[in-house]
Write a structure and sequence with these properties.
The complex is a heterodimer.
Chain A (H helix, E strand, L loop, with lengths): L4 E7 L6 E10 L4 H13 L4 E12 L1 H16 L3 E5 L3 H10 L6 E3 L2 H6 L3
Parallel strand pairs in A: 2-3, 3-4, 4-5
Antiparallel strand pairs in A: 1-2
Helix pairs in contact in A: 1-2
Chain B lengths: L6 E6 L6 E10 L4 H13 L4 E12 L1 H16 L3 E5 L3 H9 L8 E2 L2 H11 L5 E7 L6 H14 L4 H21 L8 E7 L3 E8 L3 H10 L19 H8 L3 E6 L2 E9 L3
Parallel strand pairs in B: 2-3, 3-4, 4-5
Antiparallel strand pairs in B: 1-2, 6-7, 7-8, 8-10, 9-10
Helix pairs in contact in B: 1-2, 5-6, 6-8
Classes of the chains: A alpha/beta, B alpha/beta.
């Protein structure tokens, strides 16, 4: 049984080509293809500024973290950004151990991440 | 209404010297207080400090007897033991609850559960379980969650349980992805947990070339500079296991490749 993951999308008011994605569930090797497809569809449609709300993201493993880094790189290459907000401390620890806190843009909450959008 | 005479059968537990199982039956009325007191004195003299009172055949517990049990428990606790109950039916359990006894006594469903609890808490014996599963990624999430829940149930904290979940996930995913591509080769997950640490062993039939690279990854000279580049989507699992655990080893035999990880309880 694949891990449950749900993504819901919301336009960010007053910001162009910007979308807030709420991640709900667990992000791991069983569902990264689904997440990759949904996020890249969004990027291919012109959204280059993404804020990922991790308030309800319970779990991320190394494979899930790999695609977050991939999103960040792709968004930057297209002149945008991939920011993460509301991360729980367990997930943050995994990101920290991998040494990815300097590679990902992490904010305390969505408001702070939105304010940082150019 | 006639009362049913109380009987007490004393059963020793060969594998746990300090434990005695007392099988009570009948009505435990106030007239039984003295016999119960004598029974506990007798087992105390034999060096038994942990008493499991099996109440499956008990039809009544008077408040006087409950008071006597409290006194007996106090004496056992002074000897670093305890008196616990098991086998109570719902009605009896409800009565004990109303009398406030469930806040004092630990109550187990059956003798086996009470004994396991003793072995875990007092003897600090590890518990072991084993699962064999086919090499499919989708089987890994429920397995990792199962191990994490067991750790939590055994008193491990949220942070430790999460780390254990991650370790199980990463090793099992590795075994699925790098094992010999033959669907009928099962992967064996063995977990040994005690109050201080958890050991996780994952065994599968691996490609010899992949085993060599896996072993190389464990060399102490492997440092942060060996981490995958930021744009690489995979290849961080082993680094993560190494950082989260307190020891990792790889063993290759004719029976397959075994990756063993030890995680010490921190909370």
């Amino acid at each position: 049984m694949e891990s449950h993951i749900e993504l819901s999308f919301e336009d960010i008011r007053g910001k162009q080509h910007a979308t807030l994605i709420h991640f709900i569930g667990d992000l791991d090797a069983t569902n990264i293809e689904l997440v990759l497809e949904k996020v890249f569809n969004l990027i291919n449609e012109g959204t280059v500024n993404i804020i990922a709300d991790f308030k309800q993201l319970r779990y991320v493993n190394s494979t899930g973290l790999g695609i977050l880094l991939h999103f960040s790189k792709t968004a930057r290459e297209k002149g945008g950004c991939f920011k993460i907000a509301n991360i729980n401390e367990n997930v943050y620890e995994i990101i920290e151990i991998i040494g990815a806190t300097t590679l990902l843009e992490i904010y305390d909450d969505v408001d702070e991440a939105t304010a940082a959008l150019t | 209404m006639t009362t049913q005479r109380m009987e007490i059968d004393i059963q020793e537990v060969p594998e746990s010297e300090g434990v005695v199982i007392l099988h009570f039956s009948g009505d435990l009325t106030s007239e039984c207080v003295r016999r119960i007191n004598e029974c506990f004195s007798a087992v105390g003299k034999k060096g038994k400090t942990y008493a499991i009172a099996n109440m499956a055949e008990v039809t009544l517990i008077s408040s006087a007897v409950l008071g006597e049990f409290m006194g007996c428990r106090k004496r056992l606790i002074e000897e670093h033991g305890d008196l616990v109950f098991c086998g109570l039916d719902l009605e009896m359990r409800t009565k004990l609850h109303l009398m406030g006894a469930t806040k004092i006594f630990r109550i187990y469903t059956d003798i086996r559960t009470a004994l396991n609890s003793y072995k875990w808490e007092i003897e600090r014996q590890p518990e072991k379980f084993h699962v064999s599963f086919p090499p499919y990624l989708k089987i890994v999430p429920p397995l990792r969650q199962l191990v994490s829940r067991i750790a939590r149930q055994k008193g491990y904290g949220n942070r430790d349980s999460f780390r254990i979940e991650t370790i199980v996930d990463e090793i099992c995913n590795n075994a699925v992805e790098h094992g010999r591509p033959k669907a009928d080769d099962l992967i064996d997950l063995t977990v040994i947990i005690d109050p201080d640490k958890i050991e996780i062993d994952v065994r599968n039939m691996s490609d010899p070339d992949k085993v060599a690279s896996l072993t190389a990854m464990l060399l102490p000279e492997k440092t942060d500079t060996d981490k995958p580049k930021p744009d690489v989507k995979r290849g961080r699992g082993l680094s993560l296991i190494k950082m989260l655990s307190d020891g990792m080893s790889v063993e290759c035999t004719d029976r397959g490749t075994s990756v063993r990880v030890k995680k010490v309880r921190e909370e």
